[in-house]
Amino acid sequence: MDGELVLFKENKVEVLRRLKGGRVDYLDLTSWSFQDRLFGFLIGERFFEWCGSSYPTPRERENIPVWFLLACALQMKLHRSAAFQKLEYILRSGSILTRVGFNVGLKGGGFNNKNKKGRKIPIDQDTARKFFTDTQASEVEEWYNTDVQKWLRRHRGYSDKEGVFILDPTLICLPDNPHYKESALLPLDQEGRYVEVKKLSPQERKRFKYTPAYKLTLLLHWSRQDDYFMFAGGHLGKGDESGLKRGEQLVDQFVSQIGKGVIKLLIMDREFIDGAMISRFKKTHGIDCLVPLKSNMHALLDALGISKIEKVSWMKYEEVKDETGRVIEVEEVAGVGKVESWDSCEVPLYVVLVRTRKADGKSDIWALASTQEFGDPRLARELYKGRMQIEERIDQIKNCWWVGCFTTPNFNADVVHVFFVLLTYTLIQLYLKATHHEELATQTIETLKQEERLGKDAVIVYAEKYFAVFDLDEYTDIILDLREKPRERMRRWIKKFRREKIRSP
């Protein structure tokens, strides 16, 4: 990077003195919005100070503070951007660091316009891009799954007494580009769902094109009471790797870092059906598991047999009505009790049957199994229904946070992008929890920007090595009260400033 970093100190008295003389170097209009409040909260929690010292930097010498680069990465995610060429427009707003008490500029190209090169942002986009591209993927993942989780624990991110966690994998489709070397070709449709190729006709099979994909395995914390969600761990790898193996590793890693007793109940889908793993989680970590049984499993067949012999009691869970109010579907549950026909599961297993009856007389039965015995089988069904919450979270990070919008096939950069999306989302959840805005926890980033806004514009003024923030009314009053010579000086400067300023597209 060319040039030398300069600190712009916040000094309203000094900037006001220079402003009244009509001598400023740069100004910008910004809004105290959701991003500002979030950054203010993180600064108050000393997050940037902490992550600057813990992040696995690829540099031996730091010309740019690591915390500043990480702040830039978070700002990019808040602006839903993965492209570093947009970094200059994000940072030029001036709002990123006004809560810190100082801002950062660059000699020979900073906020003042006295240089021959013209104004630049505090860091060049290529500098930021190379920093994150050089960061090793495995080290970023390790940092998120260990250091970040311990920081969240210290800041009451995992204070929920129920301790409900959800384990789930998802596929991220990639462009048809051979340079995505860590991907795997899979038979997927346009929605990213598996296609049973053998069921296709010979002609369809010939035309069918396999899709390169990553697999993202996620451990999610769900607080039913406060209604917030946090990504407690993750792994990005090839689309064909074992979600079971990676999921098991994520749980083990979380327990080793955070300790026993935080994860009390782990909800999983059928990909994680493994008796040995479920047994070990219960015996070693004290974690109960809740998982749906496959239709051909002996445990399910035995549970159905028990229900017929012992005439179990069915309880209504919920019903579906049409627009006229007529009930067209009823879902019922029944607790079967202990089932011991799952040979690889060495701990007691309790089964809850779920039956759906439709108005036309058709019915369907499936089952949930858990190492926890539920006094009321409806609770087991309610908890598993919560697993759908992670589907909504995944849908958000895919469609609202663009977690799969990669701008390069470089795997290091792709992993950094994914984990900073997870980090930004999780920090927002922590902020909403801490500020008692849990009702906003399910909202998209765009909705948050609209609903949690101060709604007050501000003007950031730079003069020499100082900056100050004025509310718009205050700044207008100052300008109107200027004497003739300073006002004329400001008029000439503003005209030149408007001609030279590079505007955001």
Helix fraction? 25-40%
Mean pLDDT across residues: 82
Low-confidence stretches: 1-7, 92-120
Structural class: alpha+beta
CA radius of gyration is: 28 Å
Instruction: Please describe the biggest sheet, giving its number of strands, its sense, and whether it closes into a barrel.
Output: 10 strands, mixed
Structural shape:
elongated
Number of domains: 3
**Strand runs, count:** 15
Give the percentage of residues in beta strands. Answer: 15-25%
Per DSSP, the total helix count is 17
Q: What's the N-to-C terminus distance?
A: 25 Å
Summarize this, please?
The chain has 505 residues and is an alpha+beta fold. It has helices spanning 12-20, 34-44, 47-54, 66-78, 87-91, 125-134, 137-154, 202-207, 243-258, 275-285, 298-310, 377-385, 388-399, 411-434, 445-451, 472-480, 484-500, and strands at 5-10, 26-32, 102-106, 164-173, 184-186, 211-223, 228-238, 265-268, 288-292, 315-321, 327-339, 349-358, 363-370, 456-463, 466-471. The longest helix has 24 residues, at 411-434.
